[in-house]
Write a structure and sequence with these properties.
heterodimer, A: 6-stranded mixed beta sheet
Chain lengths: 447, 31
């Protein structure tokens, strides 16, 4: 198969009531089945429209409001796929596993690959020095059932988000892949995309064509929104990405999509309703055979530029807990440079007109992000401040009326993993035809 | 070449070599 039809479902998960003590297994299954009822409708609809594979979100079957103890009734023992198991045909082979049985039957009856995110439990004892005091490991787990209902892949999330106290970190990273008639697939989960291992490694070392990415991603504007980041990751890594996000507007969770290396095929971002959404798109099965991403030297241009003098003082400001160095843009056109530590960011721009009621800054950050996980960032950004007060620069903002006719943004990066993104007024993604990335590392307007 | 109403534009760089050991792992999680 040269192409296939991919589906993702952004699911508004029905959450459990917050409780201090565990519910019964029957009560847990009641909630699970309410969620799978909704997923079943989406799976059947996707299959009727010709989808070969569907991805459902992280925490999509019972949510995330748990302690280590209260999630336990929801967990199942998920065996290694090497056991060659079709739960729909042999449901009691590995104990009581009603969730795997139902997912397997849905895959088999609709002849579609299904990826779902559930919890795995594995007993341990004192011979294991890392065994938790309650005698079991609990893992955030992706499972894939093939179109015959066979358990085909199992992946334990390696880089847990810090609030995921209900789960354990696996000791070792797992590079999980599986082959299909429509290409080779890799799997990881949500926050894993920020890491080298397994996210970059699974693409580089196993040469997958497509990545399945279930997430429960809350958008932290202005810089870390699901759709811009996931789509540019697909482009930068040269693979298809099928990203299914949980939908919960009060948690700012929305933003699912199907992305190829060349383009955003389809995406969904909805902060207005509480509805789920099915997305489908046709993708190339082996995108690497058609195009490899152009190698970009991300600092080549910026290192040749003599820093522009802005003639005004830089000032500090925070974007999601990270302290940036900002410099304010004055005038409808200009050249600016702002630096922090090893990183200098250069901007050349021209606006249609400079408005008195909107303020933009150029910002630089070179440092370790330490909230909800620790990861080192180098960021150059042009952003609109929330108000004309400079102290609001870096706060989320929803609309912009200033229009940029030309722009060129570059920086003296010390990494080749740079992800360019442009978000427009109304949180809309700027499509590829409006900008380009030059081989010398400039993000610039076309035309 | 259409003018764009930009909210935010960014070059978002990840420097994996400077990450602390085991990205994302909370202190003492396995102990």
């Amino acid at each position: 198969m040269d192409t296939f039809i991919a589906a993702v479902y952004e699911h508004a998960v029905i959450l459990p009531n917050k409780t201090e003590s565990p519910v019964s297994t029957e009560e847990a299954l009641l909630l699970i089945n309410k969620n799978i009822d909704i997923l079943e409708s989406a799976i059947k609809l996707a299959a009727r429209q010709g989808a070969h594979i569907i991805v459902t979100p992280e925490d999509g079957i019972y949510g995330w409001i748990f302690t280590r103890e209260t999630i336990y009734p929801y967990l199942e023992d998920i065996p290694d796929p090497e056991v060659n198991w079709i739960p729909c045909r042999d449901p009691r082979r590995f104990g009581y596993t009603p969730v795997q049985e139902r997912l397997s039957c849905l895959a088999k009856e609709n002849s579609i690959y299904i990826m779902a995110n559930i919890g795995d439990k594995k007993p341990c004892n004192a011979t294991d020095p890392h065994c938790p005091p309650d005698g079991r490991y609990q893992y955030n787990t992706n499972v894939v059932f093939d179109s015959k209902g066979r358990l085909t892949a199992r992946y334990h999330k390696y880089n847990l988000f810090e609030p995921e106290i209900q789960f354990d970190f696996p000791k070792d990273s797992e590079l999980v892949t599986f082959d299909t008639p429509f290409g080779k697939f890799g799997i990881f989960t949500c926050f894993d995309i920020f890491s080298y291992d397994p996210a970059v490694v699974v693409v580089k070392d196993t040469q997958v064509d497509s990545v399945l990415l279930p997430t429960a991603w809350y958008n932290t504007l202005p810089l870390l929104s699901a759709v811009p980041f996931h789509s540019v990751w697909a482009r930068a890594m040269g693979v298809n990405v099928l990203a299914a996000n949980t939908h919960n507007t009060s948690m700012h969770m929305t933003g699912s999509g199907i992305y190829s290396p060349e383009a955003v095929r389809v995406y969904h971002y909805d902060m207005e309703t509480e509805s789920g959404q099915l997305l489908l798109s046709e993708l190339r099965s082996r995108p690497r055979q058609h195009a490899t991403p152009a190698e970009v030297n991300w600092s080549a241009y910026a290192r040749t530029v003599k820093p522009f003098s802005s003639g005004q003082a830089d000032f500090p400001g925070k974007i999601y807990f990270d302290e940036f160095s900002f410099t304010k843009l004055t005038g409808s056109a200009g050249n600016y440079t702002v630096c922090q530590k090893d990183l200098c960011c250069h901007l050349t721009y021209k606006m249609s007109e400079s408005r008195m009621d909107e303020v933009y800054v150029l910002g630089a950050f070179d440092g370790l992000h330490t909230v909800e996980g620790q990861y080192y960032l180098q960021i150059c950004t042009l952003l609109k401040c929330q108000t004309t007060n400079s102290r609001t620069c870096g706060e989320p903002v929803g609309s912009a009326f200033t229009k940029f006719e030309e722009f060129s943004l570059s920086g003296t990066f010390r990494t080749k993993y740079v992800f360019p993104q442009i978000v427009l007024s109304g949180s809309q993604l700027a499509l590829e035809r409006y900008y380009e990335v030059s081989r010398d590392g400039r993000l610039r307007s076309r035309g | 070449g259409a003018p764009l109403p930009i909210l935010v534009m960014a070059l978002y760089g990840r420097v994996f070599e400077r990450d602390p050991p085991r990205l994302g792992q909370g202190p003492g999680k396995l102990q």
